[in-house]
Amino acid sequence: MTDKKPALVLHLSTGGEPLLFALDAKETQRLEADLTHIVKTGAVTSVQTQDSAKVTINFSQVAVAYIDDLQRKGKVFGLH
């Protein structure tokens, strides 16, 4: 079995390719609890990436945000 590689996936409201930010377990847990509220309110919040970088995101510019496992192969959106 492979290790999970969680990432925050952002689809911007202006279109284009999604942005992916690799996350550690602690940040994944924090975002899973708050992501719906952050997106609904269009908050500006900082995210700590796997490589310890801090990224500040304006969620009012985000159409869709979710946490996904980058390790999965052959995935279909919304299906596990």
Could you tell me how far the N terminus lies from the C terminus, measured between alpha carbons in angstroms? 16 Å
Query: Structural class of the helix and strand makeup?
Result: alpha+beta
Order of helices and strands: EEHEEE
Radius of gyration: 12 Å
Low-confidence stretches: none
Q: Major sheet: size, sense and barrel closure?
A: 3 strands, antiparallel
Major sheet strand order: 2-1-5
- How many structural units, i.e. domains? 1
What is the level-2 CATH architecture name? Roll
Please count the helical segments: 1
CATH fold type: SH3 type barrels
Offer a concise description of the structure.
The chain is of the alpha+beta class and 80 residues long.
Describe this structure in words.
- The chain has 80 residues and is α+β, with helices and mostly antiparallel strands.
- It has one domain: SH3 type barrels (Roll), CATH 2.30.30.
- The protein has 1 helix and 5 strands.
- Strands 2-1-5 form a 3-stranded antiparallel beta sheet, covered by helices on one side. The protein has a two-stranded antiparallel sheet with strand order 3-4.
- It starts with 5 loop residues before the first strand and ends in an 11-residue tail after the last strand.
